[in-house]
Amino acid sequence: MTEFKKAEELFDRLLESHEALVTDHIPNGRDELPSKEDLEQYNEFEGLIHECGNYILKFKKRLLDGSKNPDAAVYGPKMKAKVEGLIERYEEVYEQYEDIIQPLFEHASLQEKDRLRREEERRKQDKKDAIEKDVQQRAQWAANFDKTREEAERAQQEREAAEKERADAQNAELMAKRREEEEKIRSMDEDTKICTAIKEMLESNDNMTIAELRMHLGKLKEYISAIASTPEDDQLRTVRLANRSFNDNIGCLPGAVLFLRAVGFQPTIDTNKSHDDMIRFIKLKEPDAVKDWDYWQTWQKRLEKYVDFLSTFEAQMPTSFDAQRLFMNQADINADHIIKLWHNTGITTPTTSQ
């Protein structure tokens, strides 16, 4: 395709864009702002008129060079007439662009810039006002801060004092209860401890289902069995009564701690804590196997018998799906029957030969 043909096709596109612009997208007056679509059409037209203008400048230069030196003329008479015709038509469109279209859109552009400038100034002023308001509020808050801080500190001190007084009273009450319980436990022999523990498990346990009782009995049995298997593990034979895992699995079962006391667990002093009357740990002491091997064997076998009894106890619980969903106060489980099973084990407290 020749350069002139390309210029003609480009000029045809320019005419189409010009017609669309002047027909549908020219503002009605200098005070009317163009729409987004108007600006897009104008930008397309302006781009085409400049692109087409590049060709026109080339053609004008060639015509000028040919007029100065006819022997070097690029165009013959017919082609020269076509080029001059295209130049003339382009200049008619460009004249409209320069005299009418461009001023309208430039004025609109200036108006749009002015509008954006005013919006920016208003935005900055709003931001400044907001900052000043915030500063004033902070100043007001700072003015009242000392007073409110003193009031808050005083109220906090009063709350802390009241909470400490309440905690001390609760602690004292709990310590007294623990001392009373410990005196009661110390007065019991092994058989009484076991019998009392069985009754607590079955008769003082209304909020536990049979399934839950079976699970906690199983955990108690597993714990004693683990000690019987590895009695040398000092840490295993020590229970911190506040330990969450212990309470979730064993301690939450009424009578379970008393059962452990019957097995031989005794309170121990925690030297790393404050010296008060609160029982925090219980521990099962392992006999000295070197000094009295027979006694140690009897002690270890006795632990195994406790495990066997707990298995027998657990086996007395109903196993049907419906029965296990019953709460203990709904179940027909006789504590005296379980106590009789305990007495049938023949477990007695071993005595050292020394």
From TrEMBL:
Coiled-coil zones: none
Annotated SUPFAM superfamilies: PUG domain-like
Transmembrane segments: none
Location of region: Disordered: 114-170
CDD domains according to UniProt: PUB
Gene Ontology CC entries for this record: cytoplasm
PUB domain segment(s): 220-274
Biased composition (Basic and acidic residues): 114-136, 146-168
Pfam families: PUB
Protein name per its UniProtKB record: PUB domain-containing protein
Provenance organism: Perkinsus olseni
